[in-house]
Design brief:
The protein is α+β, with helices and mostly antiparallel strands. 29% of the residues are buried. Strands 2-1-7-6-5-4-3 form a seven-stranded antiparallel beta sheet. The protein has helices at 3-22, 58-62, 64-67, 75-78, and strands spanning 31-40, 50-56, 80-88, 91-98, 104-112, 116-127, 130-144. 22% of the residues lie in helices and 47% in strands. A hairpin with a 2-residue loop joins strand 6 and strand 7 (130-144). It is built from four helices and seven strands; from the N terminus they run H-E-E-H-H-H-E-E-E-E-E.
């Protein structure tokens, strides 16, 4: 699998995890969120930050772990599961294990402040016999109400 596809699969999984984790924090408001991810891989050129917008509703807030299963149509997201999920005040930590053709493991944490949050994910994978690591720093901010 080309490196670009690996990075995109990891990024998609972590966008989903980062935004889903936000739903668990007690100091988190529903609405439209803008999430920016900065990805770093040792030995690779710096990558441009990626930003997405995602609507998080009260329904999503009720069971954050169900949101982590991913959306239909993305096989990598659907094969990731969160383990060792912990919440301490406004900070959550977790481990993630992804199976499938390109398995990966990782850890993450996020701290919330009502209309914003910051966090980090550390991922490890093995592609073609080569160990690869990736760090993703992200931030989210509530930008308004969701469009219906």
């Amino acid at each position: 699998m080309p490196l670009k596809k690996i990075i995109m699969a990891a990024a998609a999984s972590m966008f989903m995890l980062g935004s889903a984790m936000a739903t668990a924090a007690p100091n988190f408001k529903d609405g439209l969120w803008e999430i920016t991810v900065n990805m770093n891989m040792p030995g690779m050129p710096a990558m441009q930050p990626r930003t997405i917008r995602q609507c998080m509703t009260q329904k999503d807030l009720k069971d954050p772990r169900s949101a982590m299963a991913g959306k239909p149509g993305n096989a990598q997201q659907n094969q990731c599961k969160t383990v060792d999920y912990k919440q301490n005040g406004d900070t959550v930590t977790w481990k993630v294990e992804c199976g499938g053709a390109h398995p990966m493991t990782g850890t993450g944490s996020a701290t919330y402040n009502g209309d914003s949050y910051t966090g980090v994910n550390h991922l490890k994978m093995n592609e073609g016999g080569q160990a690869m690591e990736m760090t993703m720093n992200y931030s989210g901010k509530r930008v308004g109400a969701c469009n219906k």
